[in-house]
Design a protein that fits this description.
The structure is a homotetramer. The first copy, chain A, is α+β, with helices and mostly antiparallel strands. Chain A contains 3 helices and 5 strands; from the N terminus they run E-H-H-E-E-E-E-H. Chain A has a 5-stranded antiparallel beta sheet with strand order 1-3-4-5-2. The radius of gyration of chain A is 15 Å and the shape is elongated. Chain A starts with a strand and ends with a helix. The mean pLDDT of chain A is about 95. Strand 2 of chain B pairs antiparallel with strand 2 of chain D.
C-alpha cells in the first residue's frame, strides 16, 4: 500500500541551474519512508531510540523533469520487499500528474555498532500491512 | 502581524551531535518568510520571475535549545522594518512552548545583476499589512 | 583514465547516526566530476557560461562502509561512456584502502531551456582522453 | 593568530540565484574553526570522542559579495575570546582580495547531555596560542 506525503520545496534545495539539486531527492525519499512508517504505527525516531537503525545500503534515482522552488510535490512511497534484515522501498516524486523523479532505496537493519540485526517482527508485519 | 508556519525536521537536517545542524535554522527562517509573503498575496517565486530578488545581507541566530529529527516545529515570522530597498524579518522557531532558536535576517531588493532596486510599493504595503 | 581528488568531510555532512548522510555522496561524486573535467582542460563552470549544461538523469550509489566527520576521503572518478548527448561516470569514495561508497551518474547535455544538445566534440574527446 | 584555510565551492552549495546559498557560510565558518583547532594540536573530532562538545549558541553573518560555484575561497578564522565555558571566533570568507562574508560564532562547551562544562585548560591555552 502506497503512502502519499507532500512537501514544499525549500529555496535552499535549488542550485544554480534553477531547479532542485539532484541530491535533495534522496531527502524527499527519506521524508516518504518516515511517513510510511509513521502511518503504520512505527515512528522511525522511536525505532532509533530502541537501539535499532535502518541504514542505507543502496540508492537509485532516475530524474524525469526538474522540480522548482516552492512546488508542493507529492512523494509516493511503496514497500517493494522486506526480508529478515533488509527492506526496499520504491518512490516517485510528482508535481500534479507529472513524474519528476523515480527511485528506490535498500536499507539494512543494524544496531548502534553497525552489526546486522533482524528486523523486529512487528515492524516487518506493519511494513507489509499485515495485521 | 505574525506568520505561523510549521515544518517537520528532516533526518538530513541533523548532525552527529544528534540535533539539527545550526545552519539549517537559516533554511527554516527562509521557509517562514516565504509563507509570510505568500499569506500577504506576494509569492516570492513569482517575485523572482518578475526580475527582482530579495538578497540576504545580514543574518543572526541565537540557539536556545536543540531541535531533533521528526519534531514538527513552529516558525513564527514577523516584519521588523521595511524601507525603500531593505526589509528585516524576525523569527522564532519553537517546539510547543519552548523556544529553540531566535533570529533575524536583513534582505536587500536587487535586480538580476545585483543592483539595488526599490521594493515595489505594493509589496512594501503588503508586508506591512497596509491595505 | 582515473581522476583522483580528495575532500575533507564537513561536520554539516554528518547526520545523527554519527556518519555522513547518504545524500552527501552525490555531492562528492559531483566534486569528482568537476575535477575530472578541469584536469582535462574543461572547467564545468565555464561550460555553463557557454550556455550548455550537464544535467543528471540517473544516479546510483552503493554504500559499503560509513564515512565520518573530518575524514579526508579520496574520490576516484572514471569515464564509463560518452555518446553524442550523454555521459556516464563511475565513482568510488575511499578512506585509505577501504571503499566507502561506489556509484555512477548519467548526465545529459542540454541548453538553458532543457533541450537536448550535442556534447561539443572537443569536450567529448577531452573526456575520453583523446588528443 | 589567524588560521587560513581554503575550500572550493561545491555545486550543491549554490541556489537558484546563481550564488552560494547564505546558510552555507556557516558551514565554511565550521571548516575554518576545525582547521584552527587542528593547527593548534586539538582535533575537534577527537575532542568529541573525549565526551566534550562545542555547541553553537549564537551566529552572525554579514554578506558583502556573492560567492560562486567553483571559486576557491579563503576562510580566515581568528579567536576573539575564550572564557571558562565559552569561545568566540571571528571569520572572513574571501575571494582573492575581496571580502565575501564576515561573521562570528559563539560556542559553549558541554558534555554529551548538554550540561555546561569547563573548557579544558590545555584547549583554552592552545586556542589562545599560549605555550
Amino acid at each position: 500500500m502506497e503512502q502519499v506525503t507532500t512537501t514544499r520545496i525549500r529555496y535552499a534545495d535549488t542550485d544554480q541551474m534553477g531547479y532542485v539539486h539532484h541530491a535533495k531527492y534522496l531527502e524527499y525519499f527519506e521524508i516518504g519512508r518516515t511517513e510510511y512508517m509513521r502511518a503504520r504505527g512505527h515512528s522511525y525516531a522511536r525505532f532509533e531510540e530502541s537501539g535499532l537503525y535502518l541504514v542505507l545500503t543502496e540508492a537509485h534515482a532516475a530524474y524525469r523533469r526538474p522540480a522548482r522552488y516552492d512546488m508542493e510535490v507529492t512523494i509516493r512511497t511503496r514497500l517493494r520487499e522486506v526480508s529478515h534484515v533488509q527492506v526496499t522501498f520504491d518512490y516517485t516524486v510528482e508535481n500534479g500528474r507529472e513524474i519528476l523523479c523515480e527511485g528506490w532505496t535498500k536499507l539494512a537493519c543494524t544496531d548502534r555498532d553497525g552489526k546486522l540485526r533482524r528486523i523486529p517482527e512487528s515492524l516487518g508485519k506493519a511494513l507489509e500491512g499485515v495485521k
